[in-house]
Amino acid sequence: MHSDAGGPPPGTPGGRGPAAFARDEGGRDEEGTSGPRGPHGPLYHPPPPPPRSRRQSIVGPLVLIFLGLFFLGQSLGLIEWSLWEVVWRLWPVWLIVAGLDMVFGQRGGWARALLVLIAVAIVLGIVLGIQPQRAIDRPTGAVPSSPSRTFLMEPSERVPAAPSLPVTGQQPEPVTIAQPLEGISAAEVRIESAVSVLEIRGGDLPDLLIEGTVVPLIGEQVQWDYDAVDGTGVFRLYSDKPTRISSGPRQGEWDLVLTDRIPISLHLSTGVADSDIDLTRLHVPELNVEASVGEVSIKLPETGAVKGTINAGIGEVILWIPEGRPARIRVETGIGSTSVAPGFLYRDGYYVTPQYADQEDAVDLVVTGGVGTVDLRIMD
């Protein structure tokens, strides 16, 4: 006769009956397991899959490699560009590299190697295509003098735009700037540089509104115009962005002097370069500055009311307040940072000097930071 001892009944693992899986009072099975039960015993919970390794982008390492090569080339004298010139010229390359990384980055090591070769080829092609052109030494007297850039006019006369500097592919001629006052009692001056070092200061110019020298880049066209209406002169100095970047000797330098004889409303656009603006001797009732990339140092006038706005862009703006000057400055930063020297008080959203009491001759500015840095300092 067949006996049940020969094997476990179907549906009971290990030959144990349903009683072997009965729960105790604590809700645990007698086998020491807990949790939900199925019709044939405890449910099986598979272990979680191992985490997938996250793909690392190569854009960051490529940026570090190119920066290292750039600074190495500068230290060895092989590269004469400034860092801002490289950023201004080559920033679209990183968009291309990021897009290629998204397309080919998932396909393995061979695709990444191909991406690196493509990125290097793009950068080398651009560098070779815009290789800086060095100035050519020529004997004295071999270059004809540039046409006069000085305008003599009646205050109400409209002056057409000055002719642009011709592009010869060699060292550009320095451009002399000299605009007579011609009886005006106030002025509005607009200066818009592209990729140049800008220096502005006040001076004792009894007969001129502005004078100075501009050494343009190869391919840069420097222009200006002037108008005078009802005793107020409007002067604008600007340039077209060069189609080729050059870093020859003294190229890309704007050195300008403004008269301290009349009030001047000043509007500046500094472009991609460092700027040094010294207004201590001037009377500037209105000051507006648009800084793009680079360090912009502004020394405010020692006397007179000053109102306006300053946009730090993605660079750094250093604002110097003369010691003892009544001033209040509102700083609005996005993801940028603000540095404030001792001597300022914070009151109602403004940084104020102890001398400020809503005087008519005080400094009253709004500075926006964006992603740049704003630095407030006291000038001795």
TrEMBL record:
Residues 1-53 are annotated as: Disordered. Keywords: Membrane, Transmembrane, Transmembrane helix. The chain crosses the membrane at residues 58-79, 86-104, 110-130. Residues 58-103 form the LiaI-LiaF-like transmembrane region domain. InterPro entries: LiaI-LiaF-like_TM1. The keyword Transmembrane applies. Residues 22-31 have a biased composition (Basic and acidic residues). Coiled coil: none annotated. This is LiaI-LiaF-like transmembrane region domain-containing protein.
